[in-house]
Specification:
Keywords: Cell membrane, Membrane, Transmembrane, Transmembrane helix. By secondary structure, this protein is mainly α. It has one domain. The protein has 11 helices and no strands. The longest helix is centred in the last third of the chain and has 34 residues. The chain is globular and about 50 Å long. The C terminus is likely disordered.
Length: about 220
């Protein structure tokens, strides 16, 4: 089976899982964290928004999936504002973990590159160093991977903050919108929000796959030359 069909099958499977998760959450009538949003944040105006961003940033920096922050943003503040607040929290968390790794973790990382994990980390580190913006953007758009691990690897590899954070912000945006839509859809039982979120999920993941393939093709061409 051609690789593109396998990739399409994986995307459709992920989309189906997202639909099933949305249906299950609606039946449950509650999601972890939504009670806190209801009690403490939704009607608190600017203060509630600030608390959400700061708590979301701390959770993102500690490794909590960034999609859950976007989901709670959409649930608590609606699609548009929830997307903005969720993205702000994600970027603060990303910058914090990246800065920690760059300032304190580079020596540790170089030792690991020479040890048992080097064969796994070195190719990704080299790809990020060669094309920090393009590689980071492609990886952020994919629906798989570990956000915190990429933040730490970017810092440990000594990537310039500008390209890394800019690509992260652009790459974060599609899934942030998607999960904010899902959060809003859960709260107001909006089927169209759930459907739109799933559709955007597939599109953004497909774009990430295309960018990753182009990046790999470019690397292969350079190695041949």
């Amino acid at each position: 089976m051609p690789e593109r069909w396998r990739s399409l099958g994986k995307l459709l499977l992920l989309a189906a899982g997202l639909v099933a998760a949305g249906a299950l959450l609606r039946q449950m009538g509650g999601v972890p964290g939504t009670g806190w949003v209801d009690r403490e944040l939704r009607n608190e105006g600017l203060w509630g928004e600030l608390v959400f961003v700061l708590v979301g940033a701390a959770l993102t920096a500690a490794g909590v999936p960034r999609q859950s922050i976007a989901f709670l943003g959409g649930y608590g503040f609606g699609t548009l504002l929830g997307t903005g607040l969720g993205l702000a929290a994600q970027m603060l968390g990303c910058a914090a973990s990246y800065a920690w790794a760059r300032l304190l973790g580079r020596g540790w990382a170089e030792r690991r590159m020479q040890g048992r994990f080097g064969h796994r980390l070195r190719p990704l580190r080299d790809a990020l160093r060669q094309s920090p913006f393009e590689a980071t953007l492609a990886l952020r758009l994919l629906p798989v991977g570990n956000n915190l691990a990429l933040n730490l690897l970017g810092g440990m590899a000594g990537l310039a903050a500008g390209p890394f954070l800019a690509a992260s912000a652009i790459g974060y945006l599609p899934q942030t919108v998607i999960f904010a839509l899902l959060g809003k859809g859960i709260r107001v039982e909006g089927a169209w929000q759930l459907a739109l979120g799933v559709g955007l999920f597939v599109v953004s993941a497909a774009i990430g796959l295309v960018l990753l393939r182009r990046h790999r093709a470019g690397q292969a061409l350079q190695s041949e030359n």
